[in-house]
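Look at one record.

>
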Amino acid sequence: MCGTSLMLAQSKPIWIIALFQICAATTFMLLFHFPKWMIAGFAGMVVVATLSSLLVKPQGTAVRRIPQSSPTRPVLFRIVGLGIAISSISCVCFLLFGFVIFMNSWNDWHRYEGQPYHVTTFQVTRVYYQKQSKSVDMYASGIVDGQREWMSLQPYLGTRPRNEAELDERVPAGTSIPIYLFPELKGRSRVRVYADTPPAEAYHRTAIKAANYGLTGLGICVALLFVLTRVRQLCFLKRESFPEQFLTAKNGV
């Protein structure tokens, strides 16, 4: 709601604007594979915010309207408006992406925290390249300590192969991959690609970094919004509102 035209549009159908926000956010979150509960929560927030605005606006005192007159400094007004729009989008990005990265790393950290493991090798017997509706699943079956195991190949490959033939070429049968084996877990979670930092500690570090960077970026954007909102008010001040010293200095007296 940072655009001036949107804030001044008291008579426009606010539910159409809310529906547009929900559709745009849902499309964006589906493209980046956000959890369904998060999509539903965001849609609920938009509905609650819309209902709140409908209840508050008729009172006339709870919401301070932007002056209807034209800005006395149109160039500064446009620059500040652009800054407010960028800061608002940045707030959403820091909050949304920071929260997703934090929650994923936090859940993975607790999944591997305290679990016994040992370092061994994964002997690839076959790789699988399965196209899904919005992504590609790449995994392999192999032998670990004499038993059949499964592992995800994305952390090992880094970049995504274009097709199954390229995957077979990059990870042929018989490839030995150093791994961490968690015998008490199930499925592909039992096998993690070896790195200098064990999985639990690595996920914990990522969660802390996501929280620190996300909150810091969010705080900076909120501070910028506060400052820019104050500066925007100056764009509507009349000439008679300025001190006499400012006017005489401008006239060269």
Remarks:
- The two ends are 43 Å apart (CA to CA).
